[in-house]
Hints:
The chain contains eight helices and nine strands. The protein is an alpha/beta fold. It has a single domain (about 5-310), classed as Alpha/Beta hydrolase fold, catalytic domain (Rossmann fold, 3-Layer(aba) Sandwich). Residues about 1-10 have low confidence and may be disordered.
Amino acid sequence: xxxxxxxxxxxxxxxxxxxxxxxxxxxxxxxxxxxxxxxxxxxxxxxxxxxxxxxxxxxxxxxxxxxxxxxxxxxxxxxxxxxxxxxxxxxxxxxxxxxxxxxxxxxxxxxxxxxxxxxxxxxxxxxxxxxxxxxxxxxxxxxxxxxxxxxxxxxxxxxxxxxxxxxxxxxxxxxxxxxxxxxxxxxxxxxxxxxxxxxxxxxxxxxxxxxxxxxxxxxxxxxxxxxxxxxxxxxxxxxxxxxxxxxxxxxxxxxxxxxxxxxxxxxxxxxxxxxxxxxxxxxxxxxxxxxxxxxxxxxxxxxxxxxxxxxx
Length: 312
């Protein structure tokens, strides 16, 4: 591995990793000694080993199944991804989502192994927390110990186009953003990924999906080091979802938000940068993350980056 160039390492994170994967749908009432508090989607390597964990929270009114391709991409690089279905219908208050994410996290040490093949072991000392859109807000809120706390310690935090409301001054409860620079006392490395088109209206009838004043830019401004920030040009708020998202909700993901031409490039970048970040801060291998930082504008990236910033 030491002979690989930074370019090779960088390219690899955007493609499937060395592990074949399985994805498992688990209902909350499943018959195991300690059932999960919420339905789950679990993506994992099928080969044996001990793997770090990623707890992933879906976006507002979306299904965890809409992220299947992204979750399997991450799992193929040697991670177990647990994506709870936090709700099917929800109002503006995200307090219950924060509490539910905490409950799922606390359940991991008691019940996760019952759902994994015998040869697949979770490393409960290496757990990252991530979320998309309102799920990004949920993840930040949980990391900040708003509403509740967890028994497991998180090692890293990732916000994928996080959103804290409809506009500045119209945050949904509980508010996360304080608008005080570097005010987040998180005690862990943080990465924020933003979409360049998220703050652009798709049509005049609906607001942008990630409005200025409550979006990725504001979240990163409040982070402390170590933190990194990427904004992807020409792609939208839901362009990291599966190519095909079924049902009425799935179809609305193509008409409510401003989108790029196709989803695959954004999904590949998000998956790759999540893998690089977790390898850096859960496994101590920063080569892929530093390669992205150094080569942000060349052809190795599946997308063009509008912004790249590191606080180290």
